[in-house]
Specification:
Number of helices: 1
Number of strands: 7
Shape: rod-shaped
Number of domains: 2
Distance between the termini: 34 Å
Largest sheet: 5 strands, antiparallel
Amino acid sequence: MVGVVNAVNETKRTCDVTPIDGQAKRSGMRLQAILSSAVGFVLIPKVNSKVVITFFDRQTGFVSLCEEVDKILIDTALVQFNLGANDGLVNINDLVTSMNVIEAKLDTFIVIFNAHVHSGVTTGAGVSAISTTLETVHGQTSVKGDWEDASVLH
């Protein structure tokens, strides 16, 4: 049966569908094998898009194909893209914390470098003074948006 999605219940992992051939509305069409499951792989169809419903029996059906997907829920131990060739995704909060520590240390070293004087220089025409070429303090901290692709969450 082909129908239009009227509503989606992500918690129950079901949707309500109105068949395009004029049959009665079907409620509780499964999006996943186990109702109300919190694990696995689930396509959440977009409301007002078309889906194909396959029936186990006269009442119980599941979404077998989606015209449009609102989101994909994946909760499993391993998700692999591109044969795993690029290793793991970045844990963005850990990365931002590490980058902020490095940026703070860099700023400290720049301040120390800019104030550094060689004391006691007395040979030749040497004059001890602060460097005439000062470095600019970095002065900013990293935020998640600097590296995060918010369309891929993990």
